[in-house]
Structures are given as structure tokens and as C-alpha cells.
Amino acid sequence: MKKLLLSLIISTIAIQAFAQGNSYKQGTGKFEGLAMTPPMGWNSWNTFATNIDEKLVKETADIMVSSGMAAAGYNYIVLDDGWMAKERDENGNLVADPIKFPNGMKVLIDYVHSKGLKFGLYNCAGTRTCAGYPGTRGFEYQDARFYANLGIDFLKYDWCNTAGINAPEAYATMSNALKTAGRPIVFSLCEWGDNNPWDWAKPIGNLWRISGDIYPCFDCEFKHPENWSSWGFMKIVEMRKDIRKFSGPDHWNDFDMMEVGNEMTGIEDRSHFAMWCMMASPLIAGNDFRKMKPETLAILTNKNLIAINQDKLGIQGFKLTVEDGVEVWVKPLSDGAWALTFLNRTELAKKINFDWKKNSIKDVDFGYEADFNKTIFKIKDLWKNKEVGTTKKNFTADIVPHDVITLKLIP
Ligand code: GLA
After folding, report:
1. What is the extent of the structural domain holding 329?
2. Ligand 1, residues at Cβ distance < 6 Å
3. Does residue 27 lie within any of the structural domains?
4. CB-based contacts of 86-89 (< 8 A; 24+ apart in sequence)
5. What is the residue range of the signal peptide feature (predicted)?
6. What is the maximum alpha-carbon separation in the chain?
């Protein structure tokens, strides 16, 4: 009898333990559908680095709405590196820097949300962030709960101080942690393309950086003394033009936060923006909204260009041809239309004389075609916002160095 009772007790405990083990639900895979078109917003890093605070964020959110940026589609305010205190608290929780954010992060997030905007934060898969703040390594589930409780909508997750860490595993762990925490948060991988995230990140992330950091120049390489480089925007485009088939709705190749309105000429800003639209890159502004010139605002809120970027097919464009140093980039759009950008990569003024009949388009990665011998397209100049003829005749124009002409071809 005693034996029977004992085995009954043991098996009851075993069943309970088994049931408990089974009832723990770990989420896997990203939150689907959070970024069906490339995310648009603002990130603090390019202009402010770690010099960020509550006032800056509130003013940026205010201007995002009052300037028309929000109406144009920009809705994420993302705080990059430098938002945290140097150490976690006694329970291992992250803490917002009490001097930069005297009222804490929650109040600020509620403020941004009250403006109809979304809010993002930054951390890093390593032991420390790139700027030396507490990294998430070993705290993935705790940090994910922290973010979910705060109510953030976007997490940028960087790749500094990760010696010996396996990238696909580290990013999958954080993705699962976010899923388990239960709040839909866009997961933005910032692994710089070192381990080809386009090969493995689609199930776990909504966007992934494909290069090292951008630099506010047209086509330069900026070598840092510590032996790494930042890249002019055309360098990034060129570097990653061949991974277009890995990008699409909810899984974007991220060409980095924009430098529009920072140190380049107005012409280069236009080209930079046009190329980010052509590449279906996330459009994350990186300038100081409080000092934004009307020309910069006009570029960033150009509805015609944004429509190219946000087109629901979500296809990254490609280089069709180069004529006398003028590159021709094309991007298939929904409803049979195409975006086409002439970009003068040279230092000389050029004359464009583009013969459509000799330049029919075949997109071998996605199977779209434009045969200019069979179909005539109406041409709309997207910067001038007007129709400029059809593909019956050659397209002719003058183009100054580093400038773009962006067209929409409508069948
Ligand atoms: C890395 C990232 C940048 C920025 C900084 C912050 O360099 O690539 O975008 O987040 O870290 O330290």
C-alpha cells in the first residue's frame, strides 16, 4: 500500500512538472506584417550621436507632426545609442540616463505616442553597445520584457562587442525574446552585413543593415583611425546592388539612416533620397529637424518619390545601364509602371539622350519586363511633378554632376 501511495505521489509530481514544462510558451519568429512597406522615421545617431535628451526627442516629435513629415509617412522616432545609464540597476534592468531623461523613458514614449507617432530604442547583441553602454548579451528576455512594458514599437539591435558570438543565433534569440514578451515590435538588425543577414534574417527580422555606417558624402570612403570605414551613399548602393532578391515586404535591405540635410549639397541630398527610394530602403531621416531648411523638408517629403519607395510590390531597383558615366536605375512598380532614375556619377555636366527602343528592361530576379518596342509609356518627371512626353521619342536632358532625374513610366 505504502509503495503504491509513493509511486502515485511521484507520478503526480512528474505529471505536474511535465505539464509546467509544457505550458511555457516561447515565441519564435518575428512579428509578421509590421513593415509591409519600408519603415519611415527619424533616428538620432547621424546628427547627435550620444548627445540626446528628452527635449530633443519632444521637439523632434513636435516638428515631425507640424512640418508635414508625419503626414508624408514618417512615423518612427528612434533613439539610438546613448539613451541608457552606464550600468544596469540592482535587478539587472536597463535604466534610462537620469540626466538626459529626467522624467524617465515611459513619460517620453507616452508623449511621442500622444502625437500619433511610434517610438524605437537601440541596444546591441554584444556585452556593451558601440558607445560603451550596457549591451543585451545574456539579458535578452529581460530586456525584451523591459521594452514591451515601456511600450516601444521598434528595436534597433547592433553588433559591437560580439567577439565569439554567432550572429544568426544572437539575433534569433532576441527575436524570440521580443515575440515571447508579446508586444509587436519591429526588429531592426544592425549587423552591418558582416554575416550576410539577408541569407538568414527573414524569419526573425523586419529589416537588416547591409553595410557599415553611412557617411555624408556622395561616393567617398571615410577611414576611421580604429581601422573601419564609413561609406558615401553611392558606395553603399554599389556594394549591395546585387542582393536585391533578398529584400521585400517585411524583410528589407536597410541602406542605413539618411544623411539628407546634413553635410552634402542640395543636389547630392536629392540623389541620396532618390536612390534610397529606388532601393526600397527604409527612409529614416538623420538630420536635425529643428534646423531643417525648406529645401531639405521638400526633398524628404516629396510625395512622388516616397510613393516609389513605398510601392506595395516592395522591389529593390537595379542598375540597367551606364551611358557616358550617367547611370540608369530602374524599379518595377505595381500596376505595370516603372521608376527610372538617371544619376550622373561623374564630376562633369552630361547630356542625356536615351533611346528607349535600345533599352528595354528585363528584371531577371523578379520576372518583370518593359518592352519599349511593344509598349509606349507616358513619362512623368517626379521632381518636376509633370508629364514630359512618352517613350516614343528619345529622352533628352542636361544633368549636372551628382544630380538625378527621376521618372515614372506609366504604361
Ligand atoms: C553602429 C551602428 C550605427 C550606430 C552606432 C551607435 O556604428 O552601425 O548606426 O547605431 O553603432 O553607437
Report:
1. 318-410
2. 45, 80-81, 122, 129-131, 158, 190, 213
3. no
4. 86/132, 86/133, 86/134, 87/134, 88/134, 88/139
5. 1-19
6. 100
How far does residue 24's CA lie from ligand 1's centre (Å)?
35
Q: Return the best residue to mutate from 130, 191, 214, 254 for the ligand 1 pocket (most ligand atoms within 8 A of CB).
A: 130
Instruction: Give the domain-ending residue among 251, 283, 309.
Output: 309
Q: Which residues touch 270 (CB under 8 Å, ≥6 apart)?
A: 299, 383, 403, 404
Q: Which of 213, 269, 311, 403 is catalytic?
A: 213
Do residues 216 and 123 share a domain?
yes
Q: How far away, in angstroms, is 280 Cα from ligand 1 center?
A: 21
In the chain, how many domains are there? 2
Domain CATH for 402: 2.60.40.1180
Q: End of a domain among 277, 309, 341?
A: 309
* pTM score over 0.85: yes
C-alpha cell at 296: 531639405
How far is the centre of ligand 1, averaged over its atoms, from the C-alpha of 213 (Å)?
Answer: 7
Rounded to the nearest angstrom, the distance between the alpha carbon of 160 and the centre of ligand 1 is 8
d(CA 100, CA 91): 22
Catalytic entry in 80, 158, 254, 363? 158
Any catalytic annotation for residue 158?
A: yes
Query: How confident is the prediction along the chain (411 residues), in pLDDT tens digits per residue?
Result: 455 555 555 555 444 544 455 566 788 999 999 999 999 999 999 999 999 999 999 999 999 999 999 999 999 999 999 999 999 999 999 999 999 999 999 999 999 999 999 999 999 999 999 999 999 999 999 999 999 999 999 999 999 999 999 999 999 999 999 999 999 999 999 999 999 999 999 999 999 999 999 999 999 999 999 999 999 999 999 999 999 999 999 999 999 999 999 999 999 999 999 999 999 999 999 999 999 999 999 999 999 999 999 999 999 999 999 999 999 999 999 999 999 999 999 999 999 999 999 999 999 999 999 999 999 999 999 999 999 999 999 999 999 999 999 999 999
